[in-house]
Amino acid sequence: MSVQFPKKLGYVAIALFAFFATSALIHSFLPPIIPKGIAAKLKFFSEHRDEFDTVIVGTSRLYYSASPEIFDATTRENGLPTRTFNFGIDGMHPPENFYVIEQILKTKPRNLKWVLIELEDIQTKWDNILGTERAVYWHDWARTSLTFRKALNPRGNANWFIKLTRLWLARRDFISNLMLFGKQFANIGRATDFLPSANAERFADAASELGPRGDGYRIAGDAMSAERATGFQKRLALEVSRATQKYLDPATESGYRNAAAQIRAAGAAPVFVVTPIIFQSTSRFRQSPPPAPVLAFNDARKYPDFYDVKVRIDDGHLTREGAENFARALAREFGHRARQP
Amino acid sequence: MLFVEFRFFWFFLAVFAVYWSLRDNRTRKLWLLACSYFFYAAWNWKFLFLIMASSALDYLVGMMLSRTENPRTRRGWLILSLCANLGTIAFFKYYNFFVTSAAALLEWLGLPASLHTLNIVIPVGVSFYTFHSMSYTIDVYRRKLKPVSSILDLACFIGFFPQMVAGPIVRASTFLPQLQTIRRFADVDGRGALVLFLTGFIKKACIADAVAPFVDRYFEAPWNFTMASAWVAVLFYAIQIYCDFSGYTDMAIATAGLLGYQLPVNFRFPYFASNISDFWHRWHISLSSWLRDYLYIPLGGNRGPAWFVYRNIMITMLLGGLWHGGAWTFVIWGGLHGLALVVHREWNRRTHSRQDVLPSADEMQKRNRPKNLRSVAGWLAWLFTIYWVCVAWIFFRAVDLPHAAPALRSFLFLPGGGSQDLGAWMLGIVVALAFVHWLNFRGTFSEWWRRLPASAFAAGYGCAFAIVLLFIPPHYAPFIYFQF
Questions:
Q1: Do B40 and B47 touch, CB atoms closer than 8 A?
Q2: Residue B210 contacts A where some CB pair is shorter than 8 Å
Q3: Contact by Cβ (8 Å): B198, A14
C-alpha cells in the first residue's frame, strides 16, 4: 500500500467530518422541504396567523370532521367565541403532528389561545410514504428518537430483556426511521425546493387543501355501503365488548407532554381530542395530572349518533352530516372544559 | 437496490471491507458472488435461479466445447447455449410483442385471431447478463478464449454486481483474466474511482432525475403541449437518458474499480459526435462493439457489395433497437440509426473517406480525443447529427406511435399541438448543462483534483457530497436501462 492503513482511515475520517460539518451547516440555513398540502396550510396560516385564536391539529379524522364554521358558531352560542383554523392533514399521525405544531407556533400567532390536538399513539411504520418528502421532513432527532423509543417499548411495560429482543423484532422500524433521519439531516433535495416549478406545484393545490371556505376544513364523502356497514357493526360490537382503559406508552406520553409544554410556552392552552373512532378503549396518561384535558368521543354508548352507519364513511371518518354533529359536540365539550379552572 | 440509494452505501461498505480483508482469491470470489446474488435478490430473488441456470449451462457448454474437435458437435453445443440465452430473452422480453404483432397482422389480413398475451415480469438486466454469458460461449467456440476450469469464475463474471443489471457489457475475454489473478489494494485508483462515482451520482441523481418529471409530463400527452415544450421535452430526454445511463456506468466502473476490477468505457461524450458513425463510437460502446463482433461481422460485415453491407447495417441496428425492448418504437429507433449509418457510409464512399460503422472491442479501451468542431462544415455535421439523434430519441421514449407522432411533428417545426407549456425558458437549462458538458469535454475537470494533497481531497470530497445531496429530487426514478 502506498499510504499506510491508519493514514487512509484518517482520510476517511476527514471526509466524513467534512460531510457532516457541511450537512450541519446547510441544515442550519435551509429549511426542510415541507410537503405541498402542509406547506399550503402553513403558508396560509402564517399569512393570517393573528386572525385565529384556535387551531385544530390532527389527521383526516379531524380534517374532515371539525368544521371551523360550525365549531365557532357553537362556541359563540355558548358564550365563548372562537375563530378557528383546521390544521388537519391526511395521515398526520404523531410524531409528525408534534413537528407541525412546532412550525405553527414558530409563526408566532399573537392571538392564539387554544390548540386542539388529536390524541393517538405514535406511529413507527411509514411503508406507504417511504421515499417521499412527506416521510422525511419531520424526521429531526427529537421526532426520530420518539419513534425509536416507541419501537423499543410499544406498550410501555418492557423490561430490559424485551427491549433487547425488540431491537431485532422492530429492526425494520429502526432502519427505516434512521434512514429517514439520515435523509433529513443530509438535506436531501432541499435545494430543489427553490426551483420555480417545484414551488408552483407545491402551492398549486393550496385552494383545495384549505377547503371551500378557506378555513382548512374539507367536506368528507358518502356513507358506507350496506355490505360494509354490516362489517362495521360487527367490529364495533367487538370493540365495545373489549373496551378498557389503556395507558399511553412512554414515548407517546412524552411527545404529548412536550407538545403541551410548547403550546403553553407560546401563551396558548392545549386540549387533546379523541375522535369517534372504532376503537373504544380510553387512553390515559401514566403520570398524573395529564398535560391537558382530554375530550374523548370514542364511546359508542355515550355518543351513539356518531356510530350510526348512516353517518359513517368507515372506521375512522364521518359523513358531512356526522361531521357537522361532531363539530357541534366538540365545541360544546370544549366550551365546557374551557370554563373549568 | 440502486447505486444512488442509502442502502447501497451500507451494502458496498460491507462488500468493500470484507473483500479487502480476505487474503485468498477464491474466498474473495465466493464473497463477491454471494454479494452479487444478494444485490440481485434485493430486486427479485426468484430470478436468481435464471442467472444461476445460465451460468451453469454456459459452464457446461464451455467444458464440452473444449472436449471435442468435431465441428458439428461444437456447433451443436453453441446452438444450445444461444438458444437457451436468446430463448430466455425472447420469452421474457418479446413474447407479448410477437403475439400482439402477429394478432395485429392477422387482423389486418382479415383472419380471425385469438392469441393470448401473458402477464410477464421482465427480469432486471436480462439482456445484459445473457449477453455477458453469450460472449463467453461464442469466444470459447471461436477458440479465442479457453474455457474456465471453475464455475465460480464464470458465475462471478456473469453475476458481478456492478455490471450485472445495466452493463457495461463486459467481454469474458477481458474480465475472466482479472478474476484469475488476485487484485492488489495498492493498484486501486481510489481517488479516480471516488471522483467517477460522484460524477455518476450527480449525473443520475441530480440531473437525470431532476429533468425526468418534465419529460414524463410531456410524453404522457404530447398533443396537449406547444412546440417549444416539445423541444424542451425532447432535449431534456436526450439529457436524461445520457445522464441516467452514463451516470450508472460511471458508478458501475467506479464500484468495480474500488474492488480492483476494470470495466470498459461505455460513453465518450456522444453528443459531441461529428457524425452518426462517430456517435456509435461514443454511445453505449460496449453494446455497439458487441453487436459488431457477434452480429455484424458474422452477417458479413463490410465485405461484399454496398447493398450487402447496408443490409448488414440495417439488420444489426434493427436488432439493436429490438434489444432494448419488445416495441415497434424501439425498432423504428434502430431503423432511424441504421438509415443514418447507411447514408453516412454512402457519403463516405462517394467522398473516399472511411470510418468503421461500429467500434471494435479494442477501440473501446482507447482514449481517442473527440473530433474537432473547428470548421463550419464540422459544426453543421454536428448539428445535423444531434438533431437526428434527438429525432430518434422521440421514438425511444414514446410509449407507442400515436404518442410519438405529435412530438415528432413539433420537433420538425410542423404546425399543430396544444396550448400547455412546459416553459420555454427551460431551454436555458439545456444550454447551461451543455456548457458544463463542453467544459468537461475540454478536460477542464479531468485531472486537477489529482494534484490536491490527500487530506484536502478527502475534505473536499466530503463537502462536495454534502452539497450534491441538496440537489437530489425527492423521488428516485429507476435507472432507464434497468428495463432493458
A1: yes
A2: yes
A3: no
Please tell me the total count of domains within chain A: 1
pLDDT digits (tens, 9 = 90+) for B292-303: 888 888 888 888
Residue B356's pLDDT band (cuts 50, 70, 90): low
**CA angle in degrees (0–180, nearest 5) for B184-B186-B191:** 120
Percent of the residues in chain A that have a pLDDT greater than 90, as a whole number: 55
| Distance from chain centroid for Cα B463 | 31
pLDDT for the residue numbered B48: 83
What positions of B carry a catalytic annotation? 324
Preceding amide of A304 cis, omega within 30: no
Place of cell 400482439: B100
Any idea which residue has 371551523 for its cell?
A68
What is the rounded distance in angstroms from the CA atom of residue B127 to the CA atom of residue B135?
12
B357 touches B341 (CB < 8 A): yes
Residue A313 host element (H or E) = none
Antiparallel, parallel or unpaired: β A282-284 and A245-247 = parallel
Q: What is the CATH number of the domain that holds A125?
A: 3.40.50.1110
Chain A CA closest to residue B21: A5
Most B CBs within 10 Å, among A7, A188, A190, A194, to test the B interface: A188
Q: Taking residues B226-246, report their average pLDDT.
A: 91
Does a structural domain hold residue A143?
A: no
- HEC states along A141-178? HHHHHHHHHHHHCCCCCCCHHHHHHHHHHCHHHHHHHH
Q: Do B466 and A26 lie within an 8 Å CB cutoff?
A: yes
| Cell numbers found for residue B16 | 468493500
The answer to whether B248 and B479 are in contact (CB under 8 A) is: yes
Rounded to whole angstroms, how far apart are CA atoms B230 and B220? 12
Give the C-alpha separation, B158 to B156, whole Å: 6
Interface size, chain A vs chain B, as Cβ–Cβ contacts under 8 Å: 83
3-state secondary structure of A85: strand
Helix axes of B376-397 and B401-411: crossing angle, nearest 10 degrees: 150
> For chain A, which residues score pLDDT lower than 50?
1-2, 196, 198-199, 202
- Percent of chain B residues past pLDDT 70, beyond the cut: 90
Question: Is the predicted pLDDT of residue B167 greater than 50, yes or no?
Answer: yes
Q: What is the ipTM of this complex?
A: 0.74
